[in-house]
Amino acid sequence: MKFLIKNGRLVDPSSGIDNTVDIMVADGRIEDIHPRLEPGNAERVIDAAGLVVCPGFIDMHVHLREPGDENKETIRSGVEAAVHGGFTSVACMPNTNPVNDNRSVTEYIIARAKKCRLAHVFPVAAISRGLQGENITEMADLAAGGAVGFSDDGRCVMSADLIRKALEYCRMLDLPIIEHPEDHSISGEGLVNEGLISYKYGMRGILNAAEEVIVARDIILQDRIRSRLHLTHLSTARSVANIKDAKARGIPVTADATPHHLLLNEEKITTYNTVFKVKPPLRTESDRQALVEGLADGTIDCIASDHAPHTRDEKDKEFEYAPFGVIGLESTVSVVYDRLVRTKMISLMRMVELLSTNPAVILNLKDRGKVKKGLPADLTILDLNQRFTIDTGKFRSKANNCPFRNWEGMGRVAFTIVDGRVVYESGA
Amino acid sequence: MSTPGFNQRHLLGIEHLSAGDIDTILDTADSFVEVSTRNIKKVPALKGRTVVNLFFENSTRTRSSFEIAAKRLSADLINFNSSVSSLKKGESLKDTVLTLEAMNPHIIVIRHRAAGAPKYLTTFARSSIINAGDGFHEHPTQALLDAQTMRQRFGKLRGLKIAIVGDILHSRVARSNLILHHKMGNTVHLVGPPSLVPKEFESMGAKVYHDLKAGVEGTDVVMMLRVQEERGAGNYFPSIREYRRLFEINAAVFATAAPDAIVMHPGPLNRDVEIETSLADSERSVILQQVNNGIAVRMAVLYLLKGEPNEVLN
Amino acid sequence: MEEKIKAKIMDSRKMERALARMSMEILERNRDAGSLALIGIQTKGVYVARRIRDHIQDMEEVELPLGILDITLFRDDLHLQEHHPKVEKTEIDFSVEDRHIVLIDDVVFTGRTIRAAMDSIFELGRPASIQLAAFIDRGHRELPICPDFKGKYLPTARRERVNVMLKELEGSDQVLIMEPTRF
């Protein structure tokens, strides 16, 4: 399939380009990039005038639920949701059933995704067997099977010794350890951020420190070990400050934040609406602002949705009993553009860096996150002049636990192109 | 000829009531105290209405208090306890309530361990909802009967100093009382160990004390809360023995309160843990009046809640 | 609903004379004032009852027990209303058992208030008899209820309202017929 993308504004942080160009795609790859290209024998010309062409977006923290919880989401519904939301690749977490702690599960996931021929799926395998936090998994074997990193996400590695060993062992594989920072002995049975609001509304809280002590611990270990450490879904100001300080001291560490932590705060839970029940919890307004600042000044490296689908019935419950989690694949791009770029908190170039360039670097996806001649054609094309309304009724995901439902603004995905095929277009 | 002031369909918490609403409920409760002194303690005011007690936490006293209140108003009452089989079979709260609504109850009284459960009910149920205690959040009828007791004793509900002592963090009684007295402009002291009385409560209009004597001094009401063994297990305090030494109210400490001060307790009482036994039995203790007032206050709430006209009788 | 005065039926002197006459009739009918008790219906019936008690005290030097009765909880129309009306106090500190009760209200209209009052009294005990003293009988009865003593019979239209104004409450004594103003 050969097609020409004409007159699009290419924004690619990896090369620093922000220019109107023509892009020729052929046989799954970028054939040519030039200010003016003739269509020649291209089968299709996409008129991208007024549109923004980016390297394909990568969501490095999603839960696809398959194998085991196909009621909530399947790999198929997950990748459909991904391309609908403008993501050409996703990295999926191992807390499935069975846990992705052995090569056969990793290979199963990759094979299922390949069959769908939509977004790429890069599995993140478990750090510890069964996510029990006691023994490390066969990381080299998992890597050979296609794992792009390791995490016990859903849970934190509570044993400092285990995370130390994991970081050390992983150094020879040059793959990232992704930590879900939450000291379970502090967070206990907490439901929401601990503070005045949790006290007032009578719910057990999760103290800031539950996250911060793990962030601090892992940075101290990483200072010595110098492997690849990534801290996911940061939620507190002190966590951001700690990462900033670590980077200033030359300690290699990366971090991401979710759209819901960047745009919402704990006021949302005062109605006991379970769509806002998430871990880590929504925090105070000053925590939220610190995250946005960290996003702008480079402390936080990428935005990842932590897409966590649950069935309607599971979330339709008393706040205490509903599971934690919000979905994000189909809302992230629009709400991030409208509320962070249009409001000038971050630039468009920075947004693309956060959603594409940096995730590719962190996950070692050498061919992704950039638009370059010869590389596979994964592209996300945005129409920033189009209005959007987040309508969960139109989601491809099986779930609808989206905290941004009914939000309106400007900026939508116009085309999602994976391996040189148009897998989603808004006009269609 | 209706009460224009009181315009609530539900009683989810003191949070949603104005000071005027609280006065109206207590005034109405006064009339019901009178009904309770008669030989035939029954009025037909809620005849034909059905009240459902939906109690997911064991509670004989609150449940029977609501039961007596409903029956004195001639309402039909159905008790639905957590020990009943369908709840054990894992039926969701939503399904349980929707099934109950087939019986057309006008009012559902719910006690549940999840904060926000009564509010959750209002999103899909047709009945009026009364919160009989939701997790650590609120227990509005308790705060109202406590207020009634104070009003009877002091002839007024304003200009009072109230000390609440104990596990504030896990107490819905403390929260409802705090909100109520803050609305009335009263001074509230919260007393207990730091792990159970976080400083943040001061922004809800209270003063926090970790010393019992300092917190009780000069107060008109000393309200003691239950302390639970399980909190000891969570390391909120080392042992009941130590807790008692520091926070049990006895005659000596109580002497520093105002001359006419009273001791209150929401029950059930742990004698010689929260209150020294002789003090619990003294005439300064209004614990029994609290129980009596519970029925009148609950009758007032059942009577006052705005509802749809009775479909059956229409 | 806006209303205006249609007519002034009684002034203060006429009212006092009517009350005095009612009080005398009550005494005459109840030779043995020993077991007699007055119960006034909240709100204005209470004031009328007090005046009657005072007249009887003047005439016979006996102070009859006076009870205050709020009938709200016994109304037959509570289920029709969204808001339940405010309940005033009931204070009857004597036993109604075996007593001759004179039930007193300012106006008797449909008779439903009196029915509720009787139900309420019967919850307290078994009176020997209940007699009804209504200061104004304005007709339009919906129940078989008839005052034994009345101050004045006043034919009215349904949509009108009889306002018995009392010095103790409104500053002057008069009986007015009110009618709704046309829009």
Mean pLDDT of chain B: 89
CATH topology of chain C: Rossmann fold
Helix content of chain B: 25-40%
**Shape, principal axes of CA atoms of chain C:** globular
Question: How far apart lie the N and C ends of chain B?
Answer: 20 Å
The chain-level structural class of chain C is: alpha/beta
The CATH architecture of chain C comes to 3-Layer(aba) Sandwich
**Helix and strand pattern of chain C:** EHEHEEHEEEHE
Q: Write down the Rg of chain B.
A: 20 Å
Full CATH superfamily name of the largest domain in chain B: Aspartate/ornithine carbamoyltransferase
Gap between N and C termini of chain C: 10 Å
Tally of extended strands of chain C? 8
Task: Identify the CATH architecture of the largest domain in chain B.
Answer: 3-Layer(aba) Sandwich
Largest interface, with counts of residues having CB < 8 Å to the other chain, equals: B-C, 35 and 24 residues
Number of helices of chain C: 4
Structure description:
- The complex is a heterotrimer of chains A (428), B (314) and C (183).
- In chain A, strands 1, 2, 3, 4, 5, 16, 17 and 18 form an eight-stranded mixed sheet that branches. An eight-stranded parallel sheet of chain A has the order 6-7-8-9-10-13-14-15.
- Chain A folds into two domains: 2-53 and 375-425, Urease, subunit C, domain 1; 56-362, TIM Barrel.
- Chain A is built from 13 helices and 18 strands.
- Chain A has 428 residues and is α/β, with parallel strands linked by helices.
- Chain A is globular and about 65 Å long.
- Chain B has helices spanning 19-35, 60-72, 85-88, 93-101, 117-122, 140-154, 172-183, 212-216, 229-233, 240-247, 251-254, 277-281, 287-304; strands at residues 50-55, 76-81, 107-112, 128-134, 161-165, 187-191, 207-209, 221-224, 262-264.
- In chain B, strand 3, helix 5 and strand 4 (128-134) form a beta-alpha-beta unit.
- In chain B, helix 1 packs across helix 6, helix 2 (60-72) packs across helix 13 and helix 6 crosses helix 7.
- Helices cover 28% and strands 29% of the residues of chain C.
- In chain C, strand 4 (100-108), helix 3 (112-124) and strand 5 form a beta-alpha-beta unit.
- The A-B interface holds A 195-196, 199-204, 271-272, 313, 316-321 and B 92-94, 112-117, 119-120, 134-138, 169, 172, 175, 198, 200-201, 203-204.
